[in-house]
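WARN retry 2 of 3 for item q-0093 after timeout on previous attempt; input resubmitted unchanged.
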Amino acid sequence: MNTVHYRNLQTPANNILVKHHHNHITAMQQLHHQCMLTAYIRAKGLIKRVEEDIPDAYSSVLLLSMSYFFQAIIFQLLILRQVINLIVICSVVCFTISVTNYLVHHAFIRMFTLLSIDSYNSRFEELFEIFDTNNDSGDHQSFKHTDVFENKY
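OK item q-0093 returned
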C-alpha cells in the first residue's frame, strides 16, 4: 500500500506543504531546494539592505565628521571672538585713558597757566598801585600793565 502523508514543515520563509511519498529522496530534495531558495532570498535581501545601508552609513560618518569639523570651526570662532572682544576692550580702555590723560593734562596746564597769569596780574596791579602812590608824575599811565599777560593767552 502506498500511503501519502502530508506534513506541515515550518521554514523561515513560510509554511510549505510537503508531500511525503515512500520515496524520501524527492521530499528531501524539495525541502533542500525550498530551504536554499529561502536562504538565497534572505541573503539577497540582506545584501540589498546592506547595500542600501552602506551609503547611509557613509553619509552618517560623513555627517558626523562634518559636524565635528564645524564644531571645531565654531569653537575656534568663539575663541577668536573672545580674543577680538578682549582686543576691542583693551583698545577702548587705552583710548579712554589717553584721551582722559590728554584732556586732564591740558586742562591742568590751562588752569595753572590762568591761575599763574591771574596771580601775576594781581601782583603787577599791586606793584603799579604802589608805584602810583609813590610816583605822582603820572607818566606811567600810558602803559597798560594787563595787556602783556591777557593778550598772550
